[in-house]
Design brief:
This protein is mostly helical and 406 residues long. 52% of the residues lie in helices and 2% in strands. The chain has three domains: 1-65, CD2-Gal4; 78-217, no CATH class; 282-401, no CATH class.
Length: 406
């Protein structure tokens, strides 16, 4: 018969005697759960994806270096796990503000569910099949350590859900607006300071997310509300600047370094096809003769001083390509190799530059690329209407606009 002992702190309560072990790991002690004392890692730590530590002075939970976060929110048993994960992530997201003190964004249960849906759906819509697993594994670890990337991840996941639900830019939730703003502000602050290897990797992923968000952020819901028909604003072509900014961050991040955890994600940028899009002179031959004539590129001797030369060359090299997630990097070359003079022509609504942009929009308007669809459809149609209203005397205009409208 078991011996019943009376507890000192609960006089009326009885409990069974048992042998206590103090050899459990530090994480189980911290969480006050029974440890099975398996080494090198107990089952509790393996299940939770944290590093198992039997050191006497262990005082905090740390993410396991090889683990992949899997945020499960569908069963009652997962609630305590999510609370533990939130505490772990929130601790790693604490940062010292420039004015002193600590800035903390406390993740909520809803945030964890957004991150889970991001892993399941949004990431696969942004990365091609051969790299999506790297985004999900390494990208999530970085997200849980860097506030600017956490905000960007939450923002783009919310944006993806909104767009796929058929809601407009004007129907952004307060949470999406907040995370978009915080992502942009904290990202910019990181660009000017010294960076750790982990921050360099996170900076590149944040650049990809922010440039994608800029493409999807269009206020118009009809062509007549879209640029260039609407009144001009300094921010009209910010999406171009964001994509071109990847050139700068590419140099800062230096993903070719040996200690980069995400360098394998961008192997496509070294693809010889990308170089061909920007430099293969045969691209001009793929363009309509009427367009070449309009741009002054129909002569035997083509001068590279022509402000339309590079944009036309890249566009011609893309004519035989279909735009999807696997080929998206090729279509970004058109923007990332865009020269300053050509961008100025776009800002001034030069009709020839606008026509080249409309042709690019026609190539990238694919429902498989959710963040390009609305802008490419609305602004392409807006360009056609603008040219008809303001440059109807332009040679071959009617023929060149055929096929650009839906």
């Amino acid at each position: 018969m078991p011996v019943l002992l009376r507890s000192k702190d609960a006089p009326g309560r009885k409990r069974r005697a048992h042998a206590k072990s103090r050899r459990g790991c530090g994480n189980c002690k911290l969480r006050r759960v029974k440890c099975d004392e398996l080494k090198p890692s107990c089952m509790n730590c393996m299940s939770f994806g944290v590093s198992c530590n039997y050191a006497q002075n262990s005082s905090s939970l740390e993410l396991a270096g090889e683990s992949v976060f899997q945020l499960q929110t569908h069963s009652p048993q997962s609630l305590s796990l999510n609370e533990t994960m939130r505490n772990m992530i929130n601790k790693s997201l604490m940062q010292v503000s420039p004015a002193g003190g600590v800035d903390v964004y406390q993740l909520t249960e809803d945030d964890l569910q957004v991150l889970e849906r991001c892993q399941a759906r949004t990431i696969s819509s942004l990365a091609e099949e051969k790299t999506v697993h790297i985004y999900r594994a390494e990208g999530l670890k970085l997200t849980c350590c860097h506030p600017f990337l956490m905000h960007a991840t939450l923002a783009i996941a919310m944006m993806h859900e909104r767009v796929m639900a058929g809601k407009t830019f004007k129907e952004q939730s307060t949470a999406e607006i907040y995370h978009s703003y915080q992502a942009t502000a904290t990202f910019r602050s990181k660009l000017s300071g010294p960076l750790t290897p982990s921050e360099r990797d996170a900076l590149w992923i944040a650049t990809v997310l922010l440039s994608t968000m800029s493409l999807a952020s269009i206020d118009a819901t009809a062509p007549e509300e879209a640029w260039p028909l609407m009144s001009s604003f300094p921010t009209d072509l910010d999406w171009l600047e964001m994509i071109q900014g990847k050139n700068v961050v590419w140099k800062i991040a230096d993903l070719a370094r040996p200690d980069s955890a995400v360098g394998r994600m961008v192997i496509g940028f070294k693809d010889s096809r990308l170089q061909a899009v920007a430099k293969d002179a045969s691209g001009l031959q793929a363009l309509p003769q009427e367009l070449l004539e309009l741009l002054g590129l129909d002569t035997c001797v083509v001068t590279k001083n022509n402000p339309y030369y590079r944009a036309a060359l890249c566009l011609g090299n893309l004519f035989g390509e279909e735009c999807n997630i696997a080929t998206l990097a090729l279509f970004y070359v058109w923007i990332m190799s865009m020269e300053a003079e050509f961008k100025q022509l776009l800002r001034r609504k030069d009709p020839r530059a606008l026509l080249l942009l409309a042709y690019w929009f026609r190539k990238v308007r694919s429902r498989h690329v959710w963040f390009l669809w609305q802008r490419s459809v609305l602004e392409c149609q807006a360009i056609c209407t603008y040219l008809e209203q303001n440059h109807s005397d332009m040679p071959h205009l009617e023929n060149l606009l055929l096929g650009l409208r839906y």
